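Figure 6 in text form: structure in, sequence out.
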């Protein structure tokens, strides 16, 4: 098992790669299409990596955190959200999965509006 500091470094390096990729897609395509594109691509890649780890061979931990937490986390957190939802569904926790989706979407939207409203009120 790699040392914890190495794993944090792998996440940081992967996050840098994912963030640069996301910015590149935003520059190339432009929002909101770019956001949709990275969310779909990130979810597909997350599925590939999760499937590989579950059905083919375990990824070494340093590669798993680099790719799944770092690169995909920097590219899109929607991929982690989607994998969490899938995990709840596979465990048969349907009500929790539905609540997770509804809560994540609506509360996140509410949080954006609240943050914007707070700054607007204080400005």
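Output sequence:
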């Amino acid at each position: 098992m790699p040392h914890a500091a190495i794993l944090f470094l792998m996440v940081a390096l992967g996050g840098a790669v994912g963030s640069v990729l996301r910015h590149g897609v935003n520059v190339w395509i432009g929002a909101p299409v770019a956001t949709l594109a990275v969310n779909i691509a990130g979810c597909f890649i997350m599925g590939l990596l999760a499937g590989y780890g579950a059905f083919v061979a375990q990824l070494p931990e340093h590669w798993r955190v680099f790719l799944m937490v770092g690169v995909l986390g920097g590219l899109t957190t929607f991929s982690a959200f989607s994998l969490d939802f899938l995990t709840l569904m596979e465990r048969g926790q349907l009500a929790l999965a539905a609540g997770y989706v509804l809560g994540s979407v609506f509360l996140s939207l509410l949080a954006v509006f609240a943050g914007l409203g707070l700054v607007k009120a204080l400005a």
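Caption detail: Helices lie at 4-29, 33-56, 61-75, 78-90, 94-122.
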